[in-house]
């Protein structure tokens, strides 16, 4: 009630936090609220190294590091420890392991650059991480490294496709679908894109029967079909002029007849897809179903 019915400033809010926590938050406020940019944290040997932008001082970070043994068919958790990161270098004592996941649980805001072995394992075994936040961290890290040119689009696309093959968290399915589709369609070389899109579609089909993922999966399948169609010259390019009625354009596809025996809902669409004789029949079913509840 100290500030009831009064106007306040940020300093007042931070003063309340400082008194409640028993800590001086002035340096934290300056580092996190008064300065822009994203810190990049790397694990080099037994040290956490923080790189900053514009020669700023590193922000204070509180993060976890999870260590996994990857010698068997499944990832086995070896240990998870919390660390206070202050300054450019912070020594850490970690157990032996193959995969070292920096910022496990995603407790701090920072970009992460894993060591080469951990990067290879986290992409290859993302689906074996039991914590959804860890899987989300791997996907976000892969996206950041893709922007930096440290990882190939096919590696990111394959990792997301593997994750989607067994993903059960509704909070992750749609973001993973959107990221995987964008990487396969917009980032991958033209020679690799169709194959990556086909692999993604095969994984997404398994999500159609998951109630919380059904609409997102069908929308992804429909977008994938349209993009493959553009790539094969069966439709106008994105942003290009559409043919007018009556134009004899080779890219203009004739409306496909409706397959007989197709019922309503997901089951009916899947039956129609199995019976469809031409690719455009399948595209029509996916477009219709993705635009309305099933």
Task: Describe what you observe in this structure.
By secondary structure, the chain is α+β, with helices and mostly antiparallel strands. It is built from ten helices and seven strands. The strands form two sheets. Strands 5-2-1-7 form a four-stranded mixed beta sheet. Strand 1 (40-44) and strand 2 (47-51) form a beta hairpin. Helix 6 packs parallel to helix 8 (214-231) and helix 9 runs antiparallel to helix 10 (279-290). The relative contact order is 0.07. Residues 247-265 and 276-283 have low confidence and may be disordered.
SSE order and pairing:
Elements: H1 10-21, H2 26-33, E1 40-44, E2 47-51, E3 61-69, E4 76-85, E5 89-91, E6 99-104, E7 111-113, H3 116-124, H4 132-148, H5 153-166, H6 170-187, H7 193-205, H8 214-231, H9 265-275, H10 279-290
Parallel strand pairs: 1-7
Antiparallel strand pairs: 1-2, 2-5, 3-4, 3-6
Helix pairs in contact: 4-5, 5-6, 5-7, 6-7, 6-8, 7-8, 8-10, 9-10
How far is the first residue's CA from the last residue's CA?
50 Å
| Strand order across the largest sheet | 5-2-1-7
Give the number of DSSP strands.
7
Protein structure class: alpha+beta
SSE string, helices as H and strands as E: HHEEEEEEEHHHHHHHH
Mean pLDDT: 81
Sum up the overall morphology in one term.
globular
Major β-sheet, in short? 4 strands, mixed
From the alpha carbons, calculate the radius of gyration and give it in angstroms: 24 Å
Q: Roughly what fraction of the amino acids lie in strands?
A: 5-15%
If helices are DSSP runs of H or I spanning 4 or more residues, what is the number of helices? 10
Contiguous uncertain segments of 5+ residues: 247-265, 276-283
The residue fraction in helices comes out at 40-55%
């Amino acid at each position: 009630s100290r500030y009831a019915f009064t106007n306040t400033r940020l300093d007042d809010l931070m003063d309340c936090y400082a008194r409640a926590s028993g800590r001086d938050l002035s340096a934290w406020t300056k580092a996190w609220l008064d300065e822009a940019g994203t810190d990049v944290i790397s694990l080099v040997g037994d040290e956490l190294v923080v790189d900053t932008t514009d020669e700023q001082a590193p922000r204070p970070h509180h993060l976890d590091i999870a260590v996994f043994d990857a010698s068997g068919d499944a990832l086995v958790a070896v240990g998870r420890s919390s660390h206070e990161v202050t300054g450019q270098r912070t020594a850490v004592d970690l157990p032996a392991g193959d995969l070292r996941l920096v910022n496990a649980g995603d407790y701090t805001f920072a970009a992460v650059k894993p060591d080469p072995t951990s990067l290879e394992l986290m992409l290859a075994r993302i689906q074996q991480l039991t914590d959804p936040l860890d899987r989300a961290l791997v996907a976000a890290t892969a996206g950041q490294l893709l922007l930096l040119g440290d990882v190939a689009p096919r590696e990111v696309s394959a990792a997301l496709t593997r994750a989607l093959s067994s993903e059960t968290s509704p909070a992750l399915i749609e973001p993973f679908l959107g990221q995987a589709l964008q990487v396969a369609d917009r980032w991958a070389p033209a020679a690799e894109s169709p194959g990556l899109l086909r692999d993604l579609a095969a994984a997404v089909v398994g999500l159609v029967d998951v109630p919380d993922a059904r609409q997102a999966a069908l929308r992804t399948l429909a977008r994938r079909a349209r993009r493959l169609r553009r790539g094969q010259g069966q439709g106008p390019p994105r942003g290009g002029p559409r043919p007018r009625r009556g134009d004899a354009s080779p890219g203009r596809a004739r409306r496909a007849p409706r397959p007989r025996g197709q019922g309503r809902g997901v089951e009916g669409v899947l039956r129609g897809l199995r019976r469809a004789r031409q690719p455009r029949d399948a595209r029509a079913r996916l477009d219709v179903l993705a635009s309305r509840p099933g």
